[in-house]
Amino acid sequence: MGLYGARIAGVGHYAPERIVSNADFEKMFDTSDEWIVSRTGMKERRYSPDDVASSDLATRAAKHALERAGLAADEIDCFIVATVTPDYLFPATACIVASNLKQAGKPAFDIEIACSGFIYGLPIAASFVRSGVFHRVMIIGVETLSKIINMEDRGSAILFGDGAGATIVERVAAADDCFLACELGADGSNPKLLYQPAGGSREPSSIAAIEQRRDKVHMEGREIFKVAVNRMVETAKVVLERAQLTPADVKWLIPHQANLRIIEAAAKRLHVERDRTVINIEKYGNTSSASIPMALSELIGRGSLHDGDVILFTGFGGGLSWGSIVWRWAA
Ligand code: UT7
C-alpha cells in the first residue's frame, strides 16, 4: 500500500468513423465473413483517415474522459500514452497530446508494451498517485494500427483496428484505495512472434524494407494464441489470490480484445460467465493498448458499472508481454 490510494475518476474513448467490415476484406483478398467471425469474433473495425494520427484520437478520448470526470485539463498533472503506433518514433505522442490539451510544460511520456499497454500503464499511473508524486495522472491507450497493417497477409490484416481509451487516475485516502493487485510479465526471447521488423535500430527503414512490407505488422498468430490464454489465466489467478478474492467476487472481466476464442477460453478457465465478460471485439477488432480502456469506457457508458464493483483486467501482447489487475470501482 502507498501513502495514498488511487481511484479512477473518469474514462473516455474515441473511435474513428470509417467502418471496415468483413465484406470489405472479401473484396481485397481470399477470405470470408464466415471464416473471420468463427475464428476471431470480429465483424467490423475502424480505420483513421490518412491525415489523422494517434495523438488526434488520444486527444479526443482525453477530452471525453475529462468531461465525464468533470475535470479541466489543467487539473491533470502528468500524461502517459501507451501505443505501438506513435505519431513519430520520437518525440513521445504524450507530449503532443498534452500540448493539444493546452498543457505544455506538464510531464508527458509514452510506454511501448504493445497490447499490454493499459495493463502496464494503469499500475504506473496508480503508483504515481499512491506515492504522492502526482495528484492526477491520465493514461491513454491509443492505436492507429490501420497504418501498419500488411494487407498482403490475410492472417493478420483482418485483426487490427484504430481507437483510443483514456483513464484519469486520482489520489484518494489510503483507506479508499481501488488498486487491489497487479501481476505483470514479459518474455523477449522471441520478439518476432509479433513485431514491426523495419524502422527501428535493428533494421532501419529502407526502400527494400518497404518493398518487402517489413515496415508493417508481422505475426505468428497460432503461437501467440497458445501463450495468451495461459498467461492471462495464470496472472488473473495470482491477482485474485493476492487481493483475497475469488472469481465469484468479480463483477466484470475486461480482457484485451484480441480474439473472441481467446477471451472465451480465458473466461471459462476463470469461471467468469459471458454476462460478466465485457466484449466489444465485433465492433472494433483488436485495438491493442486501446482495447481495455475502450471496453471500460463503453461499460460505463451503458451505466453498468457501480460503486464497489470488482473489475478484473487481463491482457497480453507483443513482447511477449502480459498481466492482470484487480481494481475496485469507486463511483
Ligand atoms: O493482441 C495480440 C495480437 N495477436 C493475437 O492475439 C493473435 C492470436 N492468434 C489468433 O487470433 C489466431 O491465431 C488467428 C485468428 C490469427 C488465426 O486463427 P487460427 O485458427 O490460428 O488459424 P491458422 O493461422 O491456424 O490458419 C488456419 C487456416 C490456414 O489455412 P491452411 O494452412 O489450414 O490451409 C490459413 O491460411 O486459415 C487460413 N487463413 C485464412 N483463411 C481465410 C488465415 N487467415 C485467413 C483469412 N481468411 N483471413
Count of domain modules:
2
Biggest sheet, in brief? 5 strands, mixed
- What's the helix count? 11
| Shape-level CATH architecture of the largest domain | 3-Layer(aba) Sandwich
The CATH topology of the largest domain is given as Peroxisomal Thiolase, Chain A, domain 1
Provide the list of bound ligands, each named once: oxa(dethia)-CoA
CATH C-level name of the largest domain: Alpha Beta
The CATH H-level homologous superfamily of the largest domain:
Thiolase/Chalcone synthase
How would you spell out the order of helices and strands?
A: EEHHEHEHEHEHEEEHEHEHHHEE
Mean pLDDT, to the nearest integer, reads: 97
Question: Overall 3D geometry?
Answer: globular
Topology, number of strands: 13
Helical content stands at: 25-40%
Strand order of the largest sheet: 1-7-6-4-5
- Detail the poorly predicted runs: none
